[in-house]
Amino acid sequence: MTVLRTALDTGSAEYRANREAMLAKLDDLAAEHAKALAGGGEKYVERHRKRGKLLARERIELLLDPDTPFLELSPLAAWGSEYPVGASLVTGIGVVEGVECLITANDPTVRGGASNPWSLKKALRAHEIALANRLPLISLVESGGADLPSQKEIFIPGGAIFRDLTRLSAAGIPTIAVVFGNSTAGGAYVPGMSDHVIMVKERAKVFLGGPPLVKMATGEESDDESLGGADMHARVSGLADYFAVDEPDALRQARRVVARLNHRKAYPDPGPVEPPKYDEEELLGIVPGDLKTPFDPREVIARVVDGSDFDEFKPLYGTSLATGWAALHGYPVGVLANAQGVLFSEESQKAAQFIQLADQRDIPLLFLHNTTGYMVGREYEQGGIIKHGAMMINAVSNSRVPHLSVLMGASYGAGHYGMCGRAYDPRFLFAWPSAKSAVMGPQQLAGVLSIVARQSAAAKGQPYDDEADAALRAMVEQQIESESLPKFLSGRLYDDGVIDPRDTRTVLGLCLSAIHTAPYEGARGGFGVFRM
């Protein structure tokens, strides 16, 4: 039998401490998510409702099939910036008429739904996911266009929004725009470049220039309705394919459009699956509050994969990296999970071989991060750690099966790259609240700077100020610690969301289902030169 056995003692003081630390981080995360849910605040939410309009997430709820999940993406976008958490945009994956779709919805309670630099990054990430996984894109539009004070950061890169819409359409991936309010200036090209367009009566306003701009440019007197109203676009310009009497009717019509798309998954959904043998609740107490303390990732795997069934590959070789085959919600996966933090030459070579095997078998890969990076030191440098680490990174870079990454604990240095960090284009990447990611740990980085400064002073024959050194080290440690936390990284869209560990299996299952909408094939050769 290959069912994993657990050694987790849920009654131990260590487990209880880990659990309490994780719950505290989840409480903090919930408070940040609440900011995104609050939109522009009570005043602007109430104003929006008085106009008889639905909120962004209410529109999404009416669009989705009843009692189906919505995997929200990048909910902490813009965290730590001058812009509101969530970046005035909701994005995610949901099921509409049985079809998995990528949905974006402007939040008009935040500065009228105007796009800021983080809104743009979030929208482009959503388009990237739609294209890679062949998911129909549904845009729920109500936006005043660019947030003009930040136009210098939006205008030039913002053209990629319209480029993406045309590329999706050219790839045979349907695009649908439902216009609830303003979609003006450059924003008019969202419906203009979508395959299907629905506009709401007396609400939708789609024009390149509004009445004031037309007056200034041409001297012509006009009004919103004759210039860009839904009735005009349905009867005169032909931009509107469907005319809706109100918001629920628009969402009903959007569902009918999806029902008629004839959009099919590349792979059939798997049949009934066996849940893990162990309780997902126990995931809360596995990762230590202090990431210097190792933990066994097999305890995580046992609570995520089907039937807790895991065929481990090379279990006695390169033991600080667990690799093996499993299924998750019926989909086959190859799992790479850091066991003791550091990656040595053996782990690197083992990973490269395992990744090649997954590509030969067309099996997606799941990377579970808890690594401090590749091992350093004279013995390891002489043993070839650079070329072996490069071998692993080469394999990850050129592998063509879909990759999924979850940051559970540390994800430092080049180990972050070897384990398929954001720069290596995983289809999806999520983090637990316990995760940290940076070039190295805060203490190590501060220590390196201190050593360099001390050596520089000695070379110049100058005395070294130990008191100033201690203050510098404390400042650097604090900075790196804050910049390595998941809220900070998620705010910059370095992941697709920070998730509750108990939701890991569900989130990965939703992602795997979306991935199997598009055909894929592993690399057959095509890797770079492996330095032996």
UniProtKB/TrEMBL annotation:
InterPro entries: AcCoA_carboxyl_beta, ClpP/crotonase-like_dom_sf, COA_CT_C, COA_CT_N, MCCB/AccD1-like. PROSITE patterns: COA_CT_CTER, COA_CT_NTER. GO terms for molecular function: ligase activity. Its EC number is 6.-.-.-. Residues 275-514 form the CoA carboxyltransferase C-terminal domain. Residues 22-273 form the CoA carboxyltransferase N-terminal domain. Pfam families: Carboxyl_trans. It comes from the Bacteria. Keywords: Ligase. PANTHER family: ACETYL, PROPIONYL, PYRUVATE, AND GLUTACONYL CARBOXYLASE-RELATED, METHYLCROTONOYL-COA CARBOXYLASE. This is Acyl-CoA carboxylase subunit beta. It comes from Streptomyces thermocoprophilus. The lineage of its organism: Bacteria, Bacillati, Actinomycetota, Actinomycetes, Kitasatosporales.
